[in-house]
Amino acid sequence: MSLSTHVLDAATGAPAAGLMVRLEGGSTVVTDSDGRARFAESPGAGTWRLVFDTGGWFGDRPHFHPEVVVTFTVTDPAAHLHVPLLLSPFAYSTYRGS
């Protein structure tokens, strides 16, 4: 399985470049200039968490969530899993991408 994410700042309509994302029990990646990141490891079947350092990314700008944690279940370890995050200073949403 491969795992990737894409973070967009819904307030500005721009990619969230430079945002740290940690796979709990795994590595930490930083989103590129397009707001995308791919993890080196392939998580197996089970429940996993991505921790997005939104407080660090927003910095001094007003924001509500210091971090966003997305918990998901891997049922097919051979499939690619993409976890997008739409982020604004006071709300977020996520879904299973393709």
Give the topology, please:
Layout: E1 2-9, E2 14-15, E3 20-23, E4 28-30, E5 36-38, E6 46-52, H1 54-58, E7 68-74, E8 80-88, E9 91-94
Parallel strand pairs: 1-8
Antiparallel strand pairs: 1-2, 1-5, 3-4, 3-6, 6-7, 8-9
Mean pLDDT comes to 96
CATH superfamily: Transthyretin/hydroxyisourate hydrolase domain
- Identify the overall geometry: elongated
Low-confidence stretches: none
Would you give an account of this structure?
The chain is mostly beta strands. It has a single domain, classed as Transthyretin/hydroxyisourate hydrolase domain (Immunoglobulin-like, Sandwich). The protein is 5% helix and 48% strand. The protein has 1 helix and 9 strands. Strands 1, 2, 5, 8 and 9 form a 5-stranded mixed beta sheet that branches. It has a 4-stranded antiparallel beta sheet with strand order 4-3-6-7. It is elongated. The model has no long low-confidence stretch (mean pLDDT 96).
